[in-house]
Design goal:
The protein is an alpha/beta fold. It has two domains: about 10-255, Alpha-Beta Barrel (TIM Barrel); about 310-385, Arc Repressor Mutant, subunit A. Helices cover about 35% and strands about 25% of the residues. It is built from 15 helices and 17 strands. It has helices spanning about 40-55, 75-90, 110-120, 135-140, 145-155, 175-190, 205-210, 215-235, 250-260, 290-295, 310-320, 330-335, 345-350, 365-370, 375-380, and strands at about 10-15, 20, 30, 60-70, 90-105, 125-130, 165-170, 195-200, 235-240, 245, 260-265, 270-275, 280-285, 300-305, 325-330, 355-360, 360-365. The strands form four sheets. Strands 9-10-8-7-6-5-4-1-11 form a nine-stranded mixed β-sheet, with helices on both faces. Strand 9 and strand 10 form a beta hairpin. Helix 1 (about 40-55) packs parallel to helix 2 (about 75-90), helix 2 (about 75-90) packs parallel to helix 3 and helix 6 packs parallel to helix 8. It starts with 9 loop residues before the first strand and ends in a 7-residue tail after the last helix.
C-alpha cells in the first residue's frame, strides 16, 4: 500500500482523434477524415466521458488543460467554446490554468487563433516539424513553409505569444545546413517554447514498414548539437530531453507528467493516471480507442489497472529523469507514496556509471545520463521492493 499525505496536482488531457491526412511517421491515435468531423456529437461524448470520471477527482483543482490529437485545430471555434464551457461547468479549473491547443499550420484559417483565444485558449502548440518545403513533403505534411510562418505570425497577432513550435531533425535527406536553417527560422519567429526532437521510425507506421533514407548518425548528431547551441545562445534553456523554453515559459502541463502528477484523459484512446490518496492506490484507465466505438459506447472506459510498488517507482523515474534539473528526493515520496530506499540500488548503479549525481536532497541526470537515457532508465526497471 502507498502512503500519501495529499494527492498530486491534477491536469486534464482532451484527445481529438481526427486529422486531414495520416503522417507516415505518426504512431498516435489519429484517423483520417472521410468527411466533416462530427464535432457536436464528439463534444457531447467528451463531456459525458468527463462526467463518468468526476467521482474520482471531485473537488480537486485542475491546473492545466491540453487539447491534443490528431488535429484539434480542425474543431470550429464554436465547438471549442462549447467544450471549454462544459469543462468549466464540471471541473474546478484554476483561474490561472494553462490551457493549450495543438494546431496544424495546414488547418489554420485567418483569424481563427483570435477566436480560440476568446474561447479561453492561452497557449498553442504548432506542429511545424520543418520550414523546408521539400522536407515537409517527404514527411507527408499538408502544409508548407508559407503556412508554418503564417501560423506563428497569426499567434502573435492574436496575442497568443505563449506558443510552442514543434521542430524535428534527422529528417529524410536532411543536410546539416537545412537542419540549422530550420532552427534559425524557428528562433526568428520568437516562440515562447520549442520542442526539438529527432525523427524516429515507430512501429505500426508507414515509415517503419517502408523506411526512408535518413542521414548518417554522425550527421544527425551534428544537427542536434549545433541546433542546441543555437537555441541556448538565443535564450532557450533546455529543461527536458526535447523541450526548450524562455524563462518562465516551460510547459506546465508536461511538467506535471514528468513530475508524476495526476491527469484525467477524455476522448478516444485517452489515458488517465489518478491517485486515490485516502485509499493508498494509484490507478490507470484508458478509453475506447476507435472514434466510432468511443462515440457509440455509453461507458467510455476500455480498461483499468492498479499500479504496483515497482510500477510506481519505475514510472516516476522514467518521467522525472527526463528533466535536466532532475527531482527533489522528497518529491519521489510525495508522488509515489514510497520511501526513496525502494530505488536505492538503481541510484547507486547509475551513480557508479556516471549517469546521475545524487545526494539526500536531489537526483540529477548528468549530461552522459541524458545522452544514454534508455540505459539510465533500465536500471530502475525491476525496482527494489
Amino acid at each position: 500500500m502507498f502512503r500519501f499525505s495529499a494527492p498530486p496536482p491534477l491536469s486534464l488531457y482532451v484527445h481529438v482523434p481526427w486529422c486531414v491526412r495520416k503522417c507516415p511517421y505518426c504512431d498516435f491515435n489519429s484517423h483520417e477524415l472521410s468527411g466533416d468531423i462530427p464535432e457536436t456529437a464528439y463534444v457531447d461524448a467528451l463531456l459525458a466521458d468527463l462526467e463518468q470520471d468526476l467521482p474520482a477527482v471531485w473537488g480537486r483543482p485542475v491546473a492545466t488543460v491540453f487539447i491534443g490529437g490528431g488535429t484539434p485545430s480542425l474543431l470550429s471555434p464554436e465547438a471549442l467554446d462549447r467544450l471549454l464551457s462544459g469543462l468549466r461547468a464540471r471541473l474546478k479549473i484554476a483561474p490561472d490554468a494553462e490551457i493549450t491547443l495543438e494546431a496544424n499550420p495546414g488547418t489554420v484559417e485567418a483569424g481563427r487563433f483570435a477566436e480560440y483565444r476568446a474561447a479561453g485558449i492561452n497557449r498553442l502548440s504548432i506542429g511545424v516539424q520543418s520550414f523546408d518545403d521539400d522536407l515537409l513533403q517527404r514527411l507527408g505534411r499538408i502544409h508548407g513553409r508559407r503556412e508554418a510562418l503564417r501560423a506563428a505570425e497569426a499567434a502573435h497577432h492574436a496575442d497568443l505569444d505563449n506558443f510552442n513550435l514543434d521542430l524535428m531533425f534527422g529528417l529524410p535527406g536532411q543536410s546539416l545546413a537545412q537542419g540549422i536553417e530550420d532552427v534559425s527560422t524557428a528562433i526568428a519567429l520568437a516562440p515562447a517554447h520549442l520542442s526539438y526532437y529527432q525523427l524516429t521510425l515507430e512501429p505500426n507506421t508507414a515509415f517503419h514498414h517502408r523506411p526512408p533514407t535518413l542521414p548518417p548518425d554522425d550527421d544527425i548528431e551534428d544537427i542536434q548539437r549545433q541546433g542546441q547551441a543555437r537555441l541556448a545562445a538565443a535564450g532557450y534553456a533546455q529543461y527536458e530531453v526535447s523541450a526548450y523554453a524562455r524563462e518562465g515559459r516551460q510547459c506546465r502541463h508536461n511538467l506535471n507528467y514528468w513530475r508524476f502528477g495526476d491527469y484525467l484523459g477524455i476522448g478516444a484512446g485517452a489515458h488517465a493516471k489518478l491517485t486515490q490518496a485516502a485509499e493508498g492506490r494509484i490507478e490507470r484507465l484508458w478509453k475506447r480507442r476507435h472514434p466510432r466505438d468511443y462515440l457509440a459506447a455509453a461507458d467510455k472506459v476500455d480498461g483499468r489497472s492498479v499500479l504496483s510498488r515497482s510500477d510506481a517507482a519505475f514510472e516516476f523515474m522514467l518521467n522525472a529523469l527526463r528533466l535536466v534539473e532532475g527531482f527533489d528526493t522528497e518529491l519521489f515520496t510525495q508522488r509515489t507514496g514510497l520511501a526513496l530506499n525502494v530505488v536505492t540500488q538503481g541510484l547507486q548503479a547509475a551513480e557508479q556509471r556516471g549517469l546521475i549525481t545524487w545526494d539526500p536532497q536531489r537526483v540529477c541526470p548528468t549530461p552522459q545520463g541524458r545522452d544514454f537515457l534508455n540505459d539510465l532508465i533500465q536500471l530502475f526497471l525491476d525496482g527494489d521492493e
